[in-house]
Amino acid sequence: MKRKKIAFVIAALLLLVSAGIYFYYGFLFKEARNIESEMPDFSMTATKLLNEYNSNPKKADSLYLNKTIEITGKVTKETDSVVIIENNLFCLFTNKTKDKLINNNTTVKGKCIGYDELFQEVKLDQCTINKQNN
């Protein structure tokens, strides 16, 4: 009887450890998305995206949050790794931008991470420049 209890405890521990490993590698540990290589889920102007977020942020979040989006608009401000399009679209780049983009129409692709109500900005992360029009 004692051997059965020990075997049962060992089997339960092995099952528990296996489930933990499966959960960790199956759900928690995922490789980061490569937004640059993804096809955009949506392509639109910055003005359209900003209007949708200003009119109904919850609905816009349900459509765009964590999606790859391609946005076209006029760059109004830039720093080393941040570009602001149409004054209210915040684009964070993984690398410093080399081109001078200010006052140019530019197409940027990135992952939408939501709407900042305090600054009234839509934020994109992991951005890359798709094309620049003077």
Question: What features would you describe in this structure?
Answer:
This protein is α/β, with parallel strands linked by helices. It folds into two domains: about 1-30; about 35-134, Nucleic acid-binding proteins (OB fold (Dihydrolipoamide Acetyltransferase, E2P), Beta Barrel), CATH 2.40.50. It contains three helices and six strands. The chain has a five-stranded mixed barrel with strand order 2-3-4-6-5. Strand 5 (about 105-115) and strand 6 (about 120-134) form a beta hairpin. The chain starts with a helix and ends with a strand. The mean pLDDT is about 85. This is OB-fold putative lipoprotein. Keywords: Lipoprotein.
Side by side, the strands of the main sheet go 2-3-4-6-5
CATH topology of the largest domain: OB fold (Dihydrolipoamide Acetyltransferase, E2P)
Largest sheet: 5 strands, mixed, barrel
Q: Give the SSE order as H and E letters.
A: HEHHEEEEE
How do the helices and strands line up, and which of them pair or pack?
Layout: H1 2-28, E1 42-45, H2 46-55, H3 57-64, E2 68-78, E3 82-85, E4 89-93, E5 105-116, E6 121-133
Parallel strand pairs: 1-2, 4-6
Antiparallel strand pairs: 2-3, 2-5, 3-4, 5-6
Helix pairs in contact: 2-3
What keyword list fits this structure?
134 residues, alpha/beta, OB fold (Dihydrolipoamide Acetyltransferase, E2P), 5-stranded mixed beta barrel, elongated
